[in-house]
UniProtKB/TrEMBL annotation:
<dbReference type="Pfam" id="PF00078">
    <property type="entry name" value="RVT_1"/>
</dbReference>
<protein>
    <submittedName>
        <fullName>(apollo) hypothetical protein</fullName>
    </submittedName>
</protein>
<dbReference type="InterPro" id="IPR000477">
    <property type="entry name" value="RT_dom"/>
</dbReference>
<feature type="domain" description="Reverse transcriptase">
    <location>
        <begin position="104"/>
        <end position="334"/>
    </location>
</feature>
Length: 493
C-alpha cells in the first residue's frame, strides 16, 4: 500500500476517534461489585468448566485437594527441589542447534528467548459425577513450547488415516446419520481414563518413529519428540514436579501424539478382536460403537486387556440417546439431535444447508493477488465498526473481539511467577540512585547478570554508570511493572 493511502487511512481514523469517547463498561454496577467481591475471596476458586461455557465457583480447599490427588500419583509425578527451567532451556537450545541445518529450522523462532515454568491447573468435568478435574499444564512460553508447536505441524499429517478416525462434528454426523439399529443392538461410548497422563511415552515415540520412516520423513523429529515428552515438569503452589510418564495436556504436540497412539492402538485392537462391532468411530479418547447387547461387557474387557495403562470406561445409551456429540435413535434410526454449545454457529450453518453453497461460492471467487493481514479490534459500538468501514474500503478485513471478557474480571488459577517474565524492572542502589532496565529475557536471569557484573567490577556494570560508588543490588528493591509495582522480597541472586 502506498504511503499516501496509509496516511489517508490514519487521518480518517484519527478524525473519527476525536469525536468519540470510550463508553462505560457494559455491566450493571451491582454485578461489577459482586465480581470484585468474588475476586477478594481466597476461599473460593472461580473457574470455567472443561466443556461448554459454564463457570463454576468451588471451595478452594476442594479444588486444591483434587489437584493434590493428581500429584500424589508417584508413578506419574515426582517432586523436585530445584526449578528445571534453566537446564531444560539449555538442553532444548542445544538440541535445536544440533539438528537445525539438516531440518532447515528457523532457529530464531523456535528457540525461546524468555522461558517460564509450565503451570498446572484443573478444569472441572461437570458432565461427570463429583465434577473431577481435568489436569492442564499451561506450556505457553515454556522451554519446549515453540519446539512442540513446530512438531505439531510436522507430525499432524501422520494421523487421521484409519477407517475409525473422526475429523470433526460434521464428519461424525455424516457417518452416523440415518443408520439403523436392530432390536438386539445398542449404542455404546468407550472413554479412556486420563488418557494424556497414562500414555506410555516410549510406545508413543516408537510408533511416531515408525510412521516417520514409513513416510520418508527425517527421524530427527523423533529425537525432538522424545525431548518434549520426557522433559516435562510443572509448577504448583511454588513447588516443582517432574512428570515421569504420560504427556502434558497443554503442550501443542500432545493431542497429535495422543491421536497417533490411539489410532495405532485401536487399529491393532480391531484386527485381533473376538467381537466385531458393526460400527466403530474414534475421536481421540472417545469411541462410539454399535454392538450387540450381550457383547458389550466382553468387548470392554477385551479393550482393557490390551495395555494395562490404557483403561476404558463405558457409557450405555439411556432413553434412546448417548452423550457422544448427542445422538439418539428414533425407533431404529439414529439421528443427531444437537452439537455441543461451543459449535453452535457451525450447527446453524449445517442444519440450514448453508455450508455447501458457501464452499461452492468460495471456489468461484478469485483470490486477492496480495494477502493483507486482517485487523483485530476490541468492539466498541459506534467506534470500531466505523474503523472497520474505513479499513474495508482499503480492502483490509476487520475482525472484532469483546472489549472485556467475563474471565478478565476473575482471578487466574495459574501460579504467577513474575520474575520469569520479560519486561521493565527497577533496581534501587545507594545514595538514592536507581537503575531502570528492559529485557526480552527472564528478569530473574537479567538481574543475576547485574549482580555478577557488580561483584566482578565488569565494565559497563551498574557500578560504572555514575561517578558515585553504587552498592551491589539489594534484593528487596526489585520492582516489576506487570505485577502492579509489587516489591519482590525473596529474590535470591
Amino acid at each position: 500500500m502506498r504511503k499516501e493511502d496509509l496516511e489517508a487511512i490514519r487521518q480518517d481514523i484519527s478524525s473519527m476517534l476525536r469525536r468519540y469517547s470510550v463508553p462505560k463498561l457494559n455491566l450493571p454496577k451491582e454485578e461489577f461489585i459482586a465480581l470484585k467481591n468474588l475476586r477478594n475471596k481466597p476461599e473460593l476458586t472461580i473457574i470455567r468448566a472443561d466443556k461448554g461455557k459454564a463457570t463454576l465457583v468451588m471451595d478452594t480447599s476442594d479444588y486444591n485437594s483434587k489437584i493434590q490427588k493428581f500429584l500424589s500419583d508417584v508413578s506419574t509425578y515426582k517432586k523436585v527441589k530445584n526449578d528445571p527451567t534453566s537446564s531444560t532451556l539449555k538442553t532444548t537450545c542445544d538440541l535445536i542447534k544440533k539438528h537445525s541445518e539438516k531440518l532447515n529450522l528457523d532457529v530464531k523462532w523456535i528457540i525461546p528467548t524468555c522461558a517460564k515454568s509450565p503451570k498446572l491447573y484443573g478444569l472441572p468435568k461437570i458432565h461427570k459425577p463429583n465434577a473431577p478435574l481435568r489436569p492442564i499444564v499451561s506450556q505457553i512460553d515454556s522451554p519446549t513450547y515453540r519446539l512442540a508447536q513446530h512438531l505439531a505441524k510436522i507430525l499432524s499429517p501422520l494421523r487421521g488415516h484409519t477407517r475409525a478416525h473422526i475429523k470433526d462434528s460434521y464428519h461424525f454426523v455424516s457417518e452416523i446419520k440415518d443408520r439403523h439399529l436392530s432390536d438386539n443392538e445398542t449404542m455404546v461410548s468407550f472413554d479412556v481414563q486420563s488418557l494424556f497422563t497414562c500414555l506410555p511415552v516410549e510406545d508413543c515415540i516408537s510408533i511416531v518413529t515408525r510412521k516417520l520412516e514409513e513416510n520418508n520423513m527425517p527421524v530427527e523429529y523423533a529425537v525432538f519428540l522424545r525431548h518434549c515428552l520426557t522433559s516435562g515438569y510443572l509448577l504448583w503452589k511454588e513447588e516443582f514436579y517432574k512428570q515421569l510418564d504420560g504427556v502434558a495436556m497443554g503442550s501443542p504436540v500432545s493431542p497429535i501424539v495422543a491421536d497417533i497412539f490411539m489410532e495405532d492402538f485401536e487399529e491393532k485392537a480391531l484386527l485381533t478382536s473376538p467381537i466385531n462391532p458393526r460400527f466403530y468411530k474414534q475421536y481421540v479418547d472417545d469411541t462410539f460403537t454399535i454392538l450387540p447387547l450381550d457383547k458389550v461387557t466382553a468387548f470392554l474387557d477385551y479393550l482393557n486387556s490390551i495395555n494395562s495403562k490404557i483403561q476404558f470406561t463405558m457409557q450405555l445409551e439411556a432413553n434412546n440417546s448417548l452423550a457422544f456429540i448427542d445422538v439418539e435413535h428414533e425407533g431404529s434410526v439414529i439421528v443427531n439431535t444437537w452439537l455441543p454449545s461451543h459449535h453452535h454457529v457451525k450447527q446453524v450453518l449445517h442444519d440450514n444447508k448453508l455450508r455447501v453453497p458457501r464452499l461452492r461460492h468460495s471456489e468461484r471467487v478469485e483470490p486477492a493477488t496480495v494477502a493483507r493481514v486482517p485487523a483485530v479490534l476490541p468492539y466498541i459500538r459506534g467506534v470500531t465498526d466505523k474503523i472497520g468501514y474505513i479499513l474495508n474500503r482499503a480492502s483490509i478485513k476487520t475482525y472484532f473481539k469483546p472489549l472485556k471478557k467475563f474471565g478478565q474480571f476473575l482471578p487466574s488459577v495459574k501460579c504467577n511467577v513474575p520474575l520469569q517474565d520479560a519486561g521493565v524492572y527497577k533496581l534501587d542502589c545507594e545514595f538514592g540512585l536507581s537503575y531502570i532496565g528492559q529485557t526480552k529475557r527472564s528478569i530473574k536471569t537479567r538481574v543475576k547478570e547485574h549482580i555478577a557484573d557488580v561483584k566482578n567490577h565488569a565494565p559497563g556494570s551498574l557500578q560504572s554508570v555514575n561517578t558515585y560508588r553504587i552498592a551491589p543490588v539489594t534484593t528487596s528493591d526489585l520492582i516489576y511493572h506487570k505485577s502492579s509495582l509489587k516489591n519482590i522480597d525473596s529474590f535470591q541472586g
